[in-house]
Design brief:
With about 525 residues, the chain is α/β, with parallel strands linked by helices. Helices cover about 50% and strands about 20% of the residues. It has helices spanning about 15-25, 30-40, 45-50, 50-65, 85-90, 105-110, 125-140, 155-165, 205-220, 240-250, 265-275, 290-295, 335-350, 355-360, 365, 370-390, 405-415, 420-440, 445-460, 470-475, 480-490, 520-525; strands at about 1-5, 25-30, 70-75, 95-100, 145, 165-170, 175-180, 195-205, 225-230, 260-265, 285-290, 300-305, 310-315, 320-325, 495, 500-505, 510-515. β15 (about 495) and β16 (about 500-505) form a beta hairpin. About 40% of the residues are buried.
Length: about 525
């Protein structure tokens, strides 16, 4: 990201920018200097000859160009943030830091400076006070505000570096966005896009733990309301979606409003689908609270609901404005739910080169949620998902590899009436995909053995002590279950001309798509 320094003149933007350059090695770009070069004229002459409105127009043009850069330190003029679109443009790829100082301090710093056209008045101090008051709300729209009184330039720079979030880009041609990692959810408010009203969608499981604190963090800046849905996959349906629409209407959401999903994958899918279809589409934010949602469901813009015939048969691609991943949510996640999400982590290690060693060698630390290892795991998984989505937003090709384990996994979920968790069935699906690949001579049998060994460490044992994979295998031997599972797969979105696209591993770190007849899958599944 860029670091963008804003604030009133005389608050130290240039000096802090130069210090940041020393500490980070990034290039400093001064917006006013760019305007001088563009116009081949001084700031004072532009104001005098062409007026402030013209100056602001050129300023917005320069800002739009600079916002496309990366890892730059951009110092803006004091009035740049008076235009709301400038703030939005700069926030897309930058951390906006407003440097602040008292009017008297600013006056002392600027006294005798004849290059400031806005201070060529009879009472500069009164003008400074008046302008600071008039601009207060605009400066409040920055990500953070730093009071520079009693701080050295070096101390201000260190504070800014500490505030920098870790961010991963989802690089789409339209509506690109960032995944913010490892920052407390209380800081999300500093990164939200402009919005008239905010509606938080959560569920009855997450709300008692986090909703009050989450709403409190937003209400300082936004007109915020909430709507709760019942917890559980069985409520991921059109009936509950209609209730979200009713809540949106009740609270007066318009096209400039924002929906925030605070919860797991079900909440994210439903809030995203509601946002995609309400008023033909409004912005939404993903704040995933489960591991499964953090590493998978919240990233990529897949939204939707289930029908009795199968999962996610009604939906839309609707990318979030940003995704906010806070590891502290995982501290209150029960062990089974946490392990449920680890199946998706395994998936990313199978489809991405160079990540399996990290996973397999740190599995015990991951299970203990050791902070440094946990953060690294979240980053690896989110980065893998972002890379795939960036190359194939709507599953025309590459993105299909994300379905590893899901084709059978979804069918198992529906067949057993969602008695088992999504991640558990994906884990079973990954093992079967490797078994299928082994039978079809696509991969070595050792791949199946290695994957099953790792997944057995993750999956909880059943109450009777048997492992889940063997339990599902035994249930599939029942012809009624087997036939129903195959019927569900026959209705899968990936079916085409009598064949289904099935993702299988060639080796750890590389998978491929095989178009298979259902009978082929059924024969191998029945003997598994």
């Amino acid at each position: 990201m860029n670091i963008v320094l804003t604030g009133y003149m005389g608050t130290g933007k240039t000096a802090v920018a130069n210090e940041l350059q020393k500490q980070l090695g990034w290039e400093v770009i001064d917006v006013d200097e760019r305007i001088v070069i563009y116009e081949n004229s001084t700031i004072d002459d532009i104001f005098t000859k062409k007026g402030e409105p013209y100056f602001r127009k050129v300023e917005s043009k320069i800002i739009a160009e600079l916002s496309n850069l990366d890892q730059k330190i951009i110092a803006t003029g004091g009035g740049a943030v008076l235009n709301q679109s400038n703030i939005y443009t700069l926030k897309k790829n930058g951390l906006l830091i407003c440097l602040s100082a008292q009017a008297e301090q600013i006056y002392q710093r600027l006294k005798g400076d004849n290059t400031r056209p806005l201070l060529k008045v009879s009472d500069p101090l009164a003008t400074i006070k008046e302008m600071l008051k008039a601009r207060a709300n605009f400066y409040a729209n920055n990500n953070y505000k730093i009071e520079t009184i009693n701080l050295t330039i070096q101390e201000v720079a260190k504070k800014i570096i500490k505030l920098m979030p870790q961010a991963i880009d989802v690089k789409l041609n339209q509506n690109p966005y960032k995944i913010y990692l490892n920052k407390p959810f209380q800081e999300l408010v500093h990164f939200l896009p402009p919005a008239y009203k905010v509606l938080v969608i959560s569920d009855t499981h997450v709300a008692p733990k986090y909703l009050v604190d989450f709403m409190t963090s937003l209400k300082e800046k936004y007109n915020t309301n909430f709507h709760l849905i019942p917890s559980g996959e069985k409520y991921k349906n059109l009936s509950e979606i209609s209730k979200i629409y009713e809540a949106a209407i009740k609270h007066g959401l318009d096209r400039d409003s924002l929906i925030i999903a605070l919860g797991g994958g079900v909440v994210g899918d439903m809030a995203g689908f509601a946002a995609a279809t309400y008023l033909r589409g409004i912005n939404y934010i993903q704040v995933p609270t489960t591991l499964l949602a953090q590493v998978d469901a919240s990233i990529g813009g897949k939204t939707g609901v289930d029908l009795k015939h199968g999962k996610n048969l009604i939906g839309a691609f609707h990318q979030p404005s940003l995704v906010w991943i806070d590891p502290q949510f995982l501290n209150t996640l029960n062990d089974n739910e946490y392990r449920n999400g680890l199946a998706e982590v395994v998936k990313y290690s199978v489809i991405s080169q160079g990540t399996w060693d990290f996973l397999s060698s740190n599995i015990e630390k991951i299970l203990k949620k050791e902070p440094k290892i946990l953060k690294k795991m979240l980053e690896i998984s989110a980065r893998a998902k972002a890379q795939v989505v960036s190359e194939d937003e709507k599953e025309a090709g590459l993105r299909k590899i994300l379905n590893l384990g899901h084709t059978l996994g979804h069918a198992l979920e529906a067949n057993f009436n969602y008695e088992y968790k999504h991640g558990e069935m994906v884990a079973v699906g990954i093992i079967f995909a490797s078994h299928l690949a082994s039978k079809l001579k696509i991969c070595n049998h050792n791949i199946e053995t290695e994957l099953q060994k790792t997944l057995l460490k993750i999956l909880p044992n059943s109450k009777d002590g048997s492992n889940l994979i063997d339990k599902i295998k035994n249930k599939i031997k029942n012809k009624q279950h087997l036939n129903h599972i195959m019927d569900i797969m026959a209705k899968d979105k990936k079916m085409s001309e009598g064949k289904i696209d099935f993702i299988v591993p060639e080796k750890i770190g590389k998978v491929r798509l095989e178009s298979l007849q259902l009978d082929t899958i059924k024969d191998i599944l029945s003997q598994w």
